[in-house]
DNA sequence: TCAAAACGGTATCAAAAGATACCGAAGTGG
DNA sequence: CCACTTCGGTATCTTTTGATACCGTTTTGA
C-alpha cells in the first residue's frame, strides 16, 4: 500500500456485493464505514519487502502475485484471487512486523482495504469474519507446505511439469502464456535451466514451445 | 494419536497449571472436563503421515519433532515445545484431512489432548484460546516461510551452519549432540553431503568434529 | 564377549543446476 | 523504418549435490 499511484475509489454496497465472504449485515455496514476501495494497474507494487503493513487487502477483482526474492532470484509464494487476501497482511494484524514478501498486481485489480486494527476485533464479533481469517491462515499454510515439499524434494523438471499442468487445469486451457524467464521466476531458478528443461520436454513430446507461450500436449 | 503405547494419565489442575496459556477459569474447567493427558516415550509416533486427526495435542512437557518425508529423504518442519501445538492438528480442526506430516516424541513427552470439535467453538468464547489458535497459525507460517526461503535460495553448507548456530544459540551451548545422519534428516539431504560439508568446516576452523557431537568454535 | 549395527571419512562417478557467453529471431516504440 | 530490447536456443565450463561403495572405529545389546 506504499504505491504512489493507488487510486482510491468509492466503496458502495454494490461493489461489496462482489465479495461473497461476509454474511452479517452489521459487518457489511462496518466494512462500508471503515474500509476503502483501491484500484491498482497491472504491475503496480502493492507491498514491498521490508515494508510495515497497516492494512489487509481483500481482492475484489483482479489478481495479486506474492513472491520472495533473494539477490536476483525470485520464487512464487501464491496468487491472491478475488475473495482472498495475502498472508503477510493478515500476519501483521496480530504482530506488526516487516513484510517478508512482495506483492504485485498481475492485472488491473480492485481491493477492499481493511485497516488492521479491526481484524482481531471483528474476528471475535462476526463468525463469517473469523471464518475468513482462519480459512486464510489454513489455506495459505497448506499451500506453502506443498510448495516447500516440492522445492525440498523434487527436481526442477518435475516442478516445471507440475506447474504447467496445474495452471492448465485451473485455467482450463492448454496454451499457457508465459515466458521462460517468468517461469524461472515462479520456480526460483534461472531462465537457462527452464529453457533446457522445456526443450527436453518438447523432444519427449510433452509440450510444443512457442514464443512466450507453451502448449501442453 | 494412533500409537498403541500411549499412556493415558489423570489430568489434574496442577498439571494444567504447567500450561501458561489459558487464563479464563471457565475455559480451564472445560479443559479439565473434556481433555486427556497423554504421555509418550522417546521415539513414540504421535501422528503418522496420511493419518486423520481427531485431536489437538498441546505439549505440557517434552518435545515433538514434526517432519516431512519422501521416499528415504526427510526434512524437519519444526519442533513443538511446551505450550505449543502442531500445525496439522490445528488445521484438521477446521477441515479434517490427512496429515501431510509426521510427528514423533523426541523425549518423554506429556501432552494435553484436546478433541478437535471444541477448537472452533472455544475460539469464539475464550479470548486466550483464540489467541493461542491465531498465534500458532501465525508463528508456524512465519517459521515455515523462513525454512522455505532458505531451502529455495541457500546452499546446503549455509543451511548447515545456520542450523548449528541457531541450535547453539537457542540451547546456549556450543557442543551440539547430533550425528551426521540426523543433521541430514533435519535438512533434507544425505549423510555423505553433510560429512563432506562438516569436514570442510573443520578445515576452515569453524567446528571441531566428534562422534555424534559437533563443537562450534 | 562378540557379532552386528551405527558412525563418519573418503573416493569415484553421475546428475542436476548454475554461471556465462553468444547468437538469431521477434517484438517494441520513437 | 530502424535501433534497441526481449526472447529463447545452445554451448562451455563450473559447482553443488547425490549415489554408491568401501573401510576402520566405536557402540550396542544379546
TrEMBL record, chains A, B:
GO biological process: regulation of DNA-templated transcription
Domain Cyclic nucleotide-binding: 24-77
Limits of the HTH crp-type domain: 154-217
Keywords carried by this UniProt record: DNA-binding, Transcription, Transcription regulation
Any one GO MF annotation of this record: DNA binding
Pfam families, per the entry: cNMP_binding (PF00027), HTH_Crp_2 (PF13545)
UniProt xrefs under InterPro entries: cNMP-bd_dom, cNMP-bd_dom_sf, HTH_CRP, RmlC-like_jellyroll, WH-like_DNA-bd_sf, WH_DNA-bd_sf
Highest taxon in the source lineage: Bacteria
Protein name: CRP/FNR family transcriptional regulator, anaerobic regulatory protein
Species of provenance: Flagellimonas pacifica
Amino acid at each position: 500500500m506504499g504505491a504512489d499511484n493507488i487510486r482510491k475509489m468509492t466503496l458502495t454496497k454494490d461493489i461489496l456485493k462482489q465479495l461473497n465472504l461476509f454474511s452479517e449485515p452489521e459487518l457489511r455496514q462496518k466494512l462500508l464505514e471503515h474500509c476503502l476501495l483501491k484500484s491498482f494497474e497491472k504491475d503496480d507494487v502493492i507491498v514491498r519487502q521490508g515494508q510495515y503493513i497497516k492494512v489487509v487487502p481483500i481482492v475484489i477483482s483482479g489478481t495479486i502475485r506474492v513472491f520472495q526474492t533473494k539477490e536476483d532470484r525470485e520464487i512464487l509464494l501464491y496468487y491472491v484471487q478475488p475473495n482472498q487476501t495475502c498472508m503477510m497482511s493478515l500476519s501483521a494484524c496480530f504482530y506488526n512486523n516487516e513484510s517478508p514478501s512482495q506483492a504485485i498486481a498481475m492485472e488491473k485489480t480492485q481491493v477492499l482495504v481493511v485497516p488492521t486494527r479491526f481484524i482481531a476485533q471483528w474476528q471475535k464479533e462476526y463468525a463469517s469474519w473469523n471464518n475468513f481469517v482462519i480459512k486464510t491462515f489454513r489455506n495459505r499454510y497448506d499451500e506453502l507446505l506443498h510448495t516447500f515439499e516440492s522445492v525440498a524434494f523434487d527436481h526442477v523438471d518435475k516442478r516445471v511439469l507440475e506447474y504447467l499442468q496445474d495452471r492448465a487445469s485451473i485455467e482450463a486451457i492448454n496454451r499457457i502464456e508465459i515466458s521462460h524467464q517468468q517461469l524461472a521466476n515462479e520456480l526460483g531458478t534461472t531462465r537457462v535451466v527452464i529453457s533446457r528443461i522445456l526443450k527436453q520436454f518438447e523432444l519427449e513430446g510433452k509440450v510444443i514451445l512457442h514464443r512466450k507461450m507453451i502448449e501442453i500436449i
